[in-house]
Design brief:
Layout: E1 11-17, E2 29-30, H1 33-46, E3 53-54, E4 60-62, H2 64-72, E5 79-85, H3 91-100, E6 107-108, H4 110-116, H5 129-139, E7 165-170, E8 175-180, H6 187-194, E9 201-204, H7 229-245, E10 252-255, H8 262-272, E11 274-283, E12 298-306, E13 315-323, E14 339-341, H9 357-367, E15 373-376, H10 383-390, E16 394-398, H11 402-418, E17 423-427, E18 430-431, H12 434-437
Length: 443
């Protein structure tokens, strides 16, 4: 087919009924609910000042949000001024004008830019490519990260000491994890770990006050796992008050707990200000032998908000809630069950109450976004930190026992090496060399 000469573009103003204008299905401009509310208020006060632009077939090129707002105001039958070209735009002209008209007006849906606008010289028309490059980096097809077998040995002589502040930098993802070898009930410790950050999500597994002893050859014990009821309540309350203070309003919370201490867990969370939403149940593939008549094959999980916790063994309960100062975020669909079925780790070599990474990752993805802050006041062997790394979140946490602090360092370094990810490790502000890190291996 012969190439036809295109007439120079000339624009004129005509009238169209709002209801006859056709939105473009690949419009990359996006608008938040708050921005849309402001736009509606502006239209009500000043009417339509900046008129939309359409193609000759009434397809919108610029002004999608204004037209949407007018429809929401009940003005679909109104006739308004629009700008229209003397001829139908080519596909390239249409896309370029659409992008140029939006460069300085709000946010782009980068997935649509990637899908529909790759043939446009984006940088050449003045777009800031930083955000787009970051989008491409985060959405590049990559092999899934996995953690290999990691049978951590517990040494009584440790490299970590109480008070050590570790920072793990995941260079390729541009995320940082930070944890302190110390108590998570101390507000000064939280200030050291959090800095200017605020918690977006808390996923934590406090001691259950059941004097638990692991079934490993080391007979691993958990600190703060045998207190009087009053002391245990105070311990939990101090912890939850700190997490509340250092979290965003609405920050979701998942807390593993034991039914035998359900009252203390729930009361401490309520008194700290959290809103308890529900109890989730982690059903395990096997039960754990113990002293009870009915061996536990579940674990409860309290889900709550910042303004209420989880049980023991083949299911486990989770308290789910959030910081009550704002609405809580939710990033999954509305088909999620309160019964979570994930196989428990076959061995608890890393920590006596170790949780599977896919369970923690599931909770993390439901209630946070990439690069947000996920906190855990009782890291144990570091499963929350590893799950955060795996899912592009940034962990802030604590581990009181220097033996397990050592495990966390070894485990994260091994994970990064296994997945060929660049990393840096800092201890109290000083970067550790590979030679330094060898000390944690104890081999």
């Amino acid at each position: 087919m012969e190439n036809k000469l295109l007439a120079p573009l000339e624009w004129s103003t005509v009238q169209r009924l709002i209801k006859n204008l056709v939105p473009c299905d690949f419009n990359p401009r996006q608008i938040s609910d708050a921005e849309l509310k402001k736009l509606k208020e502006s239209l009500e006060k000043f009417n339509l000042v900046e008129i939309p632009v359409i193609d000759t077939d009434n397809t919108l090129i610029a002004g999608h949000q204004r037209i949407a707002a007018l429809f929401m105001l009940g003005r679909g039958e109104d006739e308004i001024d629009v700008r229209i070209p003397n001829r139908k735009l080519t596909e390239e002209e249409f896309k370029e004008y659409m992008l140029r008209s939006n460069i300085h007006n709000g946010e782009f849906d980068w997935s649509k830019i990637e899908e529909f606008f790759q043939d446009i010289d984006l940088e050449g028309i003045g777009m800031d490519m930083g955000d787009f490059d970051e989008f491409l980096k985060q959405n590049a097809v990559q092999p899934p990260e996995e953690e290999g077998t990691f049978d951590a040995t517990i040494y009584e002589k440790t490299e970590s000491v109480e008070g050590d502040l570790f920072e793990f930098v995941s260079v390729d993802k541009d995320i940082k994890h930070r944890f302190l070898c110390g108590s998570s009930t101390d507000s000064e410790n939280w200030a050291k770990v959090m800095g200017e950050d605020k918690i977006n999500l808390l996923v934590t597994d406090p001691p259950y006050n059941v004097d638990y002893q692991g079934g490993t050859k080391e007979k691993l014990k958990i600190k703060n796992d045998k207190m009087s009821s009053d002391n245990f309540y105070r311990f939990l309350y101090d912890f939850f008050v700190n997490t509340y203070i250092f979290s965003h309003g609405g920050a979701p919370v998942y807390v593993f707990y034991a039914d035998s201490e359900a009252i203390n867990f729930r009361q401490a969370m309520l008194d700290a200000g959290y809103k308890i939403s529900s109890t989730l149940v982690w059903v395990k593939n096997t039960f754990v032998l113990g002293r009870l008549d009915y061996h536990m094959q579940h674990e409860p999980i309290i889900f709550c908000e910042e303004t209420q916790p989880t049980e023991i063994e083949t299911h486990r309960n989770l308290i789910y809630g959030w910081n009550a100062e704002a609405a809580h975020p939710w990033h999954s669909d509305r088909k999620q069950s309160s019964v979570l079925r994930f196989d428990k780790p076959l061995r608890n070599a890393d920590h006596p109450t170790m949780k599977p990474l896919d369970l923690i990752g599931y909770l993390i993805k439901n209630s946070s976004k990439q690069k947000e802050i996920v906190a855990d006041g009782f890291l144990g062997s570091g499963s929350t930190l590893i799950a955060s790394e795996m899912n592009w979140r940034q962990c802030r946490g604590f581990e009181l026992d220097p033996r397990f602090a050592d495990v966390i360092v070894r485990r994260w370094v091994a994970y990064m090496k296994e997945n060929k990810l660049n990393y840096e490790v800092y201890r109290n502000g000083k970067q550790l060399t590979e030679s330094d890190l060898e000390k944690w291996k104890k081999e």
